[in-house]
Design brief:
With 296 residues, the chain is of the alpha+beta class. It has two domains: 147 residues, Up-down Bundle (Bacteriocin As-48, Chain A), CATH 1.20.225.20; 80 residues, Ubiquitin-like (UB roll), CATH 3.10.20. Helix content is 33%, strand content 11%. It is built from ten helices and seven strands. It has a five-stranded mixed sheet, sandwiched between helices. A two-stranded antiparallel ribbon has the order 1-2. β5 and β6 form a beta hairpin. α3 packs antiparallel against α4. The termini are far apart.
């Protein structure tokens, strides 16, 4: 009666024990247990080391002022163009403020056809230009996949800059009073600076010699410290500065402290006029001045 239960299974038996797991199931379970984990989703933003980067090319000419930027129809005047450029940089809500400040400086250099310094600033701040076209064009890129142009920061964020921010449209109207101001700006600025230095307007020879040391002392203004942020990532520098001195004294002091031969000062997206005091450029004691170190 119990023979079916007392059967001894030999090594050649084809019957598995009752509690054995089928080999096929074991293999499936084993494969499931050792399957590799899912890959972590990638951000999709290329790193600075893998992103393509081409040398800057000179911007293409622009025939007309833009139509849909402001309520002023083309052609624009010079003053309106400068106003819209300022508004463009002041209203950026994405990206990094310091990067936008850098790009404002690059725009100015490109308008001056100064490609070497513009390229040096991009390299110093780790900003790449995949196809060499800094501004967004109106046509299509060479590969036919859409509008070319644009630059990327170190984190892979795109900064899209319209062509009219970089290039002066050919139909710009130069206003007559602006031409007069431009023609006499150098002498006027020198005269204003002399007035502030002496504190009494155009001085007579006798008054200039009498008490000259006291006038010079008053002219220097208040001694302050200017926090300067270098593009070479060497950290911030605190520069001693007399508030009525021209900003070029800050630039000269930075060159002495760093051993660099050429620097440019930027503040609030604009190039600092080194012939004016920083205060006249909008700077106050709690602001940081960006310093771009250029390789000569």
């Amino acid at each position: 009666m119990g023979c079916c239960h007392s059967r001894v299974q030999g090594p050649d038996s084809d019957v598995d024990p009752p509690d054995a797991v089928p080999r096929q199931s074991q293999s499936a379970n084993q494969n499931q247990s050792i399957s590799p984990p899912r890959a972590t989703p990638r951000s999709g933003l290329p790193t600075s080391s893998t992103r393509p980067n081409q040398p800057l090319r000179a911007p293409s000419p622009l025939a007309r002022s833009p139509k849909n930027v402001s309520n002023v129809l083309p052609p624009w005047t010079r003053s309106h163009l400068e106003k819209e450029r300022q508004i463009f940089f002041e209203t950026r809500v994405s990206g990094n403020l310091e990067v936008w400040t850098t790009l404002g400086q690059v725009c100015l250099l490109l308008r001056q056809n100064n490609l070497p310094d513009a390229q040096a600033i991009l390299d110093a701040t780790n900003i790449s230009c995949p196809n060499g076209r800094f501004a967004r064009g109106r046509g299509r890129s060479r590969d036919g996949r859409g509008k070319g142009g644009g630059v990327y920061d170190a984190q892979g964020l795109l900064y899209d800059i319209p062509d009219w921010v970089v290039v002066d449209p050919a139909d710009i109207i130069e206003e007559e009073h602006e031409k007069e101001i431009d023609a006499g700006s150098d002498g006027a600025e020198d005269e204003v600076y002399e007035d502030k230095r002496d504190g009494i307007g155009p001085a007579s020879p006798g008054k200039e010699d009498k008490g000259k040391g006291r006038a010079d002392e008053v002219d220097m203004g208040e001694k302050v410290k200017v926090r300067c942020r270098l593009s070479t990532s060497q950290g911030d520098l605190l520069v001693d500065y007399w508030s009525r001195q021209p900003a070029r004294y800050v630039a000269e002091r930075i060159k002495e402290m760093t051993g660099q031969g050429k620097v440019k000062l930027m503040f609030m997206g604009k190039v600092v006029d080194e012939g004016k005091p920083l205060g006249e450029c909008g700077w106050t004691g709690n602001h940081i001045v960006s310093v771009f170190v250029l390789n000569e």
